[in-house]
Amino acid sequence: MTFALLGNAIFTASDETLGAVLVRLLSEQEQTLALAESCTGGFLADQITNVPGASKVFVAGYITYSNEEKIQTLGVSRESIERFGAVSEQVATEMAEGLRTRTRATHGIATTGIAGPGGGSEEKPVGTAFLGLSSENQPVQCERFFFPSDRETFKQLVAQRAFDLLRKRLM
Predict the structure, then answer these.
(1) DSSP annotation string for 8-42
(2) Residue 165 has what DSSP assignment?
(3) C-alpha to C-alpha distance for 171 and 167, rounded to whole angstroms
(4) φ and ψ at residue 61, rounded to 5 degrees
């Protein structure tokens, strides 16, 4: 099987992390990134700042774990949180857009989810995550994912998926 058959499902053929691929792509395109994390608690920012040269592309990272911080720091509407819940497409979208416009980054990624082991519901079980991606001159993209696992694995899976959303947009 050749790499051509897998298309953009492969992010590197070398010993590079997805974070390193993103830093490289952002640098090559002279674009910037900001992060708003809830359920990942800074894990995305950690992965980006582990890459040499990240300071050229990484603008800011916020851990907005509480609803009040989502409202105050990112401009999420209180009505959206009350109506849809903090773990929702609406809130992830508002987080990503508010982040990008406040930091003036080219791209803003937002994560919100239920890492567990408690806190889930029938509608939104433990392992549910919403990822928002806001980019200049493009509509905000938001996707729902389900990663039922332990907290650490959940954060890793959400981070990989969030980074892959941006990678595909940059390609």
Answers:
(1) GG---SSS--HHHHHHHHHHHTT--EEEEESTTTT
(2) H
(3) 6
(4) -140, 135
User: What phi and psi, each to the nearest 5 degrees, are found at residue 4?
Assistant: -60, -35
**Is the pLDDT confidence value at 9 over 90?**
no
Average confidence (pLDDT) over 80-91: 98
CA distance 63 to 26: 22
Closest CA to 131 of 120, 141, 121, 117: 141
d(CA 133, CA 123): 23
Q: Residues 135-155: what's their mean pLDDT? A: 96
What's the confidence (pLDDT) of residue 6? 37
C-alpha angle 124-129-132 in degrees, rounded to nearest 5: 130
- The identity of residue 141, as a single letter, is Q
CA neighbor of 75 nearest in space, from 49, 46, 98, 52: 98
Cα 107 from Cα 138, distance rounded (Å) = 10
Distance CA 137, CA 118 (A): 38
Cis peptide before 125 (omega within 30 of 0): no
